[in-house]
TrEMBL record:
Protein name: Integrin-like protein
Residue span of region Disordered: 215-239
Swiss-Prot/TrEMBL keywords: Glycoprotein, Hydrolase, Repeat, Signal
Pfam families: FG-GAP
GO molecular function, one term: hydrolase activity
Superkingdom of the organism of origin: Bacteria
Span of the signal peptide: 1-30
InterPro entries documented for this protein: FG-GAP, Int_alpha_beta-p, Integrin_alpha_N
Cell inner membrane listed as a keyword: no
């Protein structure tokens, strides 16, 4: 996702536990022994199939979904579509693609002005059939609860790819939306994939397995948030206990004497337990201060068997904490996982003034706007891709954008290994232009199963908001610009108007 952290990794403890559990869970009762009859043979229940992460068609290759939420569909503005690219050993991701929108066969509802289908995406095997499913948010869908309440739907995975769909959730409540801030994971360790969102006052969990009409096994609420709006959400196993944990960045809006609005930022974690997520606990950052942030992802950067948290903070000022010089221009904070959970005593913060990181920390760069974690170089340490979408490259290239990659190591992200890519880098197709915002969204994914993740980098505002996506290849020393390719709406056979292609990826 997937959830967020459903980058294509080994199955890990949670999936292994689920598989073993499914192999031994139930047996038929043997008939009583009789002198004239041999003992009855016990029959084991068939094992439930286990889906590989982000593999919609079950062929063993990671697939990618990315959105164009502002695109025209059937003449409707901002109706939105999702592009699915299926992985392969030898073909490029664009060679086998699929377009999904609300006028596609089998997709519920219809394309309407402003729905923004695909604004948020996640993945997970909700029906436990061995194929990963795609969960799609339409943030401003009109529902029976009211206008622009949003909904969540699932498109089912299968041998031939994604097809068929069902509504999972409609927005309800005064400020709730049904189409954003959701993740998947096995939050109670029972082997089934659950769905969680923060559109209720706390974390609402829809327990798997789901029926094919989108009905969960049950719905429960877990711990009211002490602060207001969610800014980002991710999931992963940060304590190695086989149960998925949920982490979210949140902000608290309030009125101040000096102005009408201000906010403070926080990060919270819901630990997975046998009863589902526990109440949220705050995660602190540098010097024990509240960990303010926007984007986040989870992965094992230091290769110790526990997944780690990386939070990107783009806001340089926060009214509720002492200001940090390292927050200038944006920063990322690395919080390692451990058997006791996230270790806030061992955090590392990095910005563009940190040792080895290309560029210079300049106010407004938004270093950390997007984050993705996966193994780029095949050394089994998971690495980082970091979006810097407001990076300026010259007087007439303001907000052209950049992407920084950084290798993982035993002590976390290694700034001295950082590299930068822009549209001005040699071998990168196109050229940097003002307001492109290259790097607004990034995704690392191993679509050819060679053990190294490719980099997908978006500039949703390229070509007057048409949007473009670049694919960069990995090497043993990191991402290279050589043989990189770019595509836009025209390449997908879609209308080249305002689309914001590449606005988000499956998390």
């Amino acid at each position: 996702m997937t959830s967020r952290s459903s980058t294509f990794r080994t199955l890990g403890l949670a999936a292994a536990t689920a598989l073993v559990g499914s192999l031994t869970a139930s047996t038929a009762i043997a008939a009583p022994e009789r002198p004239d009859r041999a003992p009855a043979v016990q029959k084991k229940a068939a094992a439930k199939p286990v889906a590989l992460p982000d593999d919609f068609n079950g062929d063993g290759y990671q697939d990618i979904a990315l959105s164009a939420p502002m695109a025209y569909i059937s003449g409707e503005r901002r109706a939105g579509y999702v592009t699915v690219m299926y992985g392969s050993k030898s073909k490029t991701p664009t060679a086998n693609k699929q377009i999904l929108h609300q006028d596609s066969p089998g997709i519920p509802d219809k394309a309407e002005n402003g729905d923004q289908y695909g604004r948020d995406l996640a993945t997970g095997d909700l029906d436990h059939d061995g194929y990963t499913d795609l969960i799609v948010g339409a943030r401003y869908e009109d529902t029976a609860a009211g206008k622009e309440r949003g909904n969540l739907s699932v498109v089912w995975g299968g041998k031939s790819g994604l097809s068929g769909s069902a509504i999972l959730r409609d927005g309800s409540g005064a400020h709730a939306s049904g189409g954003d801030f959701f993740v998947t994971g096995d939050f109670d360790g029972d082997g089934d994939t659950d769905l969680a969102d923060t559109n209720s006052p706390g974390l609402r969990v829809f327990a798997g397995p789901f029926s094919r009409d989108g009905v969960p096994t049950g719905v429960t609420d877990h711990g009211k948030l002490p602060w207001g709006d969610t800014k980002g959400i991710s999931s992963g196993d940060v304590d190695g206990d086989g149960k998925t944990d949920v982490v979210a960045t949140v902000r608290d809006w309030y009125t101040t004497r000096s102005g009408p609005w201000s906010y403070s930022g926080h990060t919270v974690v819901w630990k997975g337990t046998a009863q589902g997520p526990a109440d949220p606990v705050e995660v602190t950052g540098v010097a024990g201060q509240p960990l303010s942030g926007d984007a986040l992802d989870i992965g094992d950067i230091n290769r110790d068997g526990f997944e780690d948290l990386v939070v990107g903070r783009t806001e340089e000022y926060d009214d509720n904490i002492d200001e940090l010089a390292i927050a200038k221009g944006g920063m990322i904070t690395y919080v390692p996982g451990s058997a006791k959970g996230l270790d806030s005593a061992s955090v590392t913060a990095v910005n563009q003034d940190s040792h080895g990181v290309p560029g210079e920390a300049e106010s407004g760069d938004r270093f950390g706007q997007s984050i993705s974690i996966a193994d780029i170089d095949g050394d089994e340490y998971e690495d980082l891709a970091i979006g810097v979408p407001v990076e300026s490259l010259g007087v007439r290239q303001g907000s052209a954008g950049a992407v920084v990659t950084m290798r993982g190591g035993s002590n976390g992200p290694m700034g001295e290994t950082a590299r930068v890519l822009t549209q001005n880098t040699a071998d990168v197709p196109g050229s940097a232009e003002e307001y492109d915002q290259f790097g607004l969204a990034v995704k690392l994914a191993d679509t050819n199963a060679d053990g190294r993740a490719e980099l997908f980098a978006s500039a949703p505002r390229e070509n007057k908001y048409e949007g473009s996506v670049w694919i960069f290849q990995p090497t043993a020393t990191g991402i290279t610009a050589k043989k990189s390719v770019v595509f836009g709406p025209k390449s997908l056979g879609q209308r080249p108007d305002i689309s914001e292609l590449g606005f988000t990826y499956n998390n």
